[in-house]
Design a protein that fits this description.
Layout (H helix, E strand, L loop, with lengths): L5 H5 L5 H19 L1 E4 L3 E3 L5 E4 L3 E5 L2 E5 L2 E6 L12 E7 L5 E5 L19 E8 L23 E4 L14
Antiparallel strand pairs: 1-4, 2-3, 3-6, 4-5, 7-8, 7-9, 9-10
Length: about 170
């Protein structure tokens, strides 16, 4: 199915104010749908156990550009923004832009999966992968310092490799 040109349908609406409001809303929907993972990276713990690797080539469409990120060990270095207190949950979403640059976007920890807060995802980027941390071992998780397979975290590191378009705020903003 081909999406029809947005301006073509919007310009058929007679009221200028309504046209503008719909344009602003629907542009964001079109942008999110246009930034899509086509083949997941299959993230896993890197050889350097504080880092994340991709075990498969990643492909996405980002702002009309086909992006490939080759399989790479120690691809992502976590930052302290990914910190998580023992027994709590936190999420880090890795996004990729049309140049192939990956950015860490940390959420806010919560007492449960439902209570943690997702980060804002820029409409110009696709989701490369997601890491959920829930340290249930001997202490807190410190991004970039604590090994992802240490007694502090284990078994609380979950790697998610989403396919398609993804916006964690879409339902919350209805």
């Amino acid at each position: 199915m081909t999406m029809e040109k947005l301006s073509q349908r919007i310009n058929a609406i007679p009221d200028v104010g309504t046209r503008r409001e719909l344009q602003l809303i629907l542009e964001k929907v079109y942008k999110v749908l246009g930034n899509v993972t086509l083949k997941a990276a299959a993230m896993a713990i890197g050889t350097t156990t504080t880092k994340i690797k991709s075990t498969a080539d990643y492909y996405a469409m980002v702002q009309g550009v086909l992006v490939k990120k080759a399989t790479t060990d120690d691809l992502i270095t976590l930052t302290t923004a990914s910190n998580c207190t023992n027994a709590k949950f936190n999420v880090t979403v890795f996004t990729i832009n049309s140049s192939g640059t990956i950015t860490n976007r940390a959420g806010t920890e919560g007492a449960s999966l439902a209570a943690m807060k997702w980060p804002t995802i820029p409409e110009e980027e696709a989701v490369f992968g997601i890491l959920i941390i829930n340290p249930t071992g001997t202490g807190d998780f410190v991004g970039g310092t604590t090994a992802l397979n240490s007694g502090t975290v284990l078994p609380g590191a979950v790697y998610i490799n989403p396919m398609g378009a993804f916006s964690p705020s879409a339902i919350a903003n209805l």
